[in-house]
Amino acid sequence: MTNTQILKRLFNEYTKKYIFQIFLAFIFTIVLAASTSSIAWLLDPAVEKLFIQKNQSLMLLIPLGIIVAFAAKGFSLYLAKALMISVGEEVRKAIQVDMMKNLIKADTETIEKKHSGKIITNLINDVNFMTNLVSVGILNLFKDSLTLLGLLIVMFYQNWKLSLIAIVMIPFASFFARFLGKRVSKLTVQAMDTAGILNTRLMEIFRNHKLIKIFQKETYETSRANNALEQLKNKGKKLAIVYARSSPIMEFLTGIMIAILIYYSGSLIMSGEIAVNNFFSFLAAMMLAYQPVRSLATLNLTINQGLAAAKRILPIIDKKHNILEDEKLNKLEVSNGTIVFEKVNFNYNSNSRSILNNINLNIHGGKMTSLVGHSGAGKSTILNLIPRFYDCTKGNIKIDDQLIKNRRLSSLRDNVSLVSQETTLFDDTILNNIKYANLNASDQEIREAARLSFSEEFIDLLPDKYNTMIGENGIRLSGGEKQRLSIARAFLKKSKIILLDEATSSLDTETEKKIQNALNYLTKDKTTLVIAHRLSTILNSYKIYVIDNGEVIGEGNHEELLKSSKAYKNFYDKQIQKN
Q1: What is the DSSP string of 171-220?
Q2: Which domains can be identified in the chain, with CATH numbers?
C-alpha cells in the first residue's frame, strides 16, 4: 500500500465523518493567520504615525489594535487545537476499536504467532503516531500554511524585492525536511520493534516471577531487561537527534537570510526605495514567518512517523481469518450430541510436521469418552478441533451428522464447554468470572452453578463473598479453587458437550474428590470427551481411545483394551502403581 493510498484510506475510514469539525478548525486557522499577519502589518503605522510623525490621535488606537490581534490569535489557536484534539482522540479510539475487533475475532493460530507484548505496542504506540498524523499533522498544515501565506502577503506589500530573497529559504528547508523524514520513518519502525520486544520481556518477567525467584535468575533477567532498555534508549536517542537536526539547519538558513536582508535593506533605505516603517513591518512579518516555515519543514517528520505506524497497524486490521462467523450458514442443531471424526489430519501449517494422522473417532452422545496417551500425542489438539479453535487439514468432523464447518460458528460454540487444567480467569470479581459464561444469568443461577461446582464453600469464607477481586488470572485463589470456578462457568453455560482437558491433575486428594464430584454432576447425561490422567475417570468412561504420535492405536472399553492394547496396559499399570 502506497503512502497516498494510506492517506486516502485514513481520510475515508476515520476522518471523513469529522469533516465539519475539521472545517471549523480550518476557519479558526484563517482567523489565526489573519491576526498574526495583522500584528506584523500594524508595525508599519505604529512606527510611521507614532515614532516618526508623532501623531497623538493614534496613541491608543494602534496599541489597542495590537491587543485585539494578539487576543484573536490566542483564542483562535486554542479553538482550532481543541477541535483537532477532539478529532484525534475519536480517530484514535476508532482505530483501536477496529484493531481490537479483529484481534478478538482472530484465529487461535493468528494470536499464538504474535506475542501479546508486541500487539500492545501496536495498539498504543503505533496508534499514537497515527493519531498525531491525523490531528497534529492536519492542524499544523492548515495553521502554518495559512499563517505563512498571510505573512508573505504582508512582506510583498511592504517590499517585493526583499520578499523574493526571503522566499528562497523555503525550498532549502523543504529539501532538508524531506531528507530527515526518510530517516525518521526508518528509525520509527526500528524503535517500535524494540518497544515490542521490551513489552514482551516485561510481560514474561511479571508472569513468571515465581519461576525467576526459585531459579534465582533475578540478575539474569535484569540483564536481559537492561539490554532491551539499552536498545530502546539508543533508538529513541537517534530519533530525537534526527528531530533536533532540524533546529541548527533552520537557524543557519534563517541567519544567512536575515544577514542578506539587512545588508540589502540598508541599500534600499539609503536609495529611498523603502522607508524605515516599511522595513520594520517587513522584518516583523519575516520573523513571525520563521515559526510556520520551521513547523512545515518538520511536518514531513510527523507524516512519515504516522505513515510508518499505519503500515504496521492496517495489516492487523485487514488480516483475514479462516474461522469466522458466517450468518448465511444454518445453525447447528444438537440433539444426541454424537461427535464423529472421519479420517482427520491436522498440522499447524503446510511446512510443519503432521500432528494428527487419519484420526477416526466415534464419541457417543450423552456418554463419557476418554483419550489416553503420553504428553504430545495429540490429545489436546483433538479437543481444540471440536470448537474449531483450529480447522482440520483433511477429513471431517460431524456432530449429529452435521459437518461443523458447514454450520454457524456461534451455534457450535454455544453447545460446547471447555474445562482445562490451565484455568483462565479475569482480574475481576468471582461473580463476574462465573457470569462470563452467561452475562444475562440471574444471581440465583450463578449461586446454583457455584453450589454444584463446590465453589460456594470457599466463596462464603471470603470477606466480600462473590464480590471478591481475585487478581490477575485468579492469583489470589488456589489451583483447586480456580478449577472449581471454571467448572461453575461450565454449569452456567448449560452446554450439551463438555470437553475436559486434564481437569483433575495436580491437586490434593480432598480437592480432587470435590472436583471429581462436581464433574460428575456437570457431565451427567452430557456428551463428554476427557483427556484422562486419573484411573477413576478412565474406569467411568463408556469408551477409551489410546492416542500415540497423532494416531489412534487402540479403542474400546477398559476391559477390552487391557487385552488388546499393550500401550494402554502399560498406562494402566502406571496408574495402579501411582495410586
Answers
A1: HHHHHHHHHHHHHHHHHHHHHHHHHHHHHHHHHHHHHTHHHHHHTT-HHH
A2: 3-318 (1.20.1560.10), 334-415+498-579 (3.40.50.300), 424-494 (3.40.50.300)
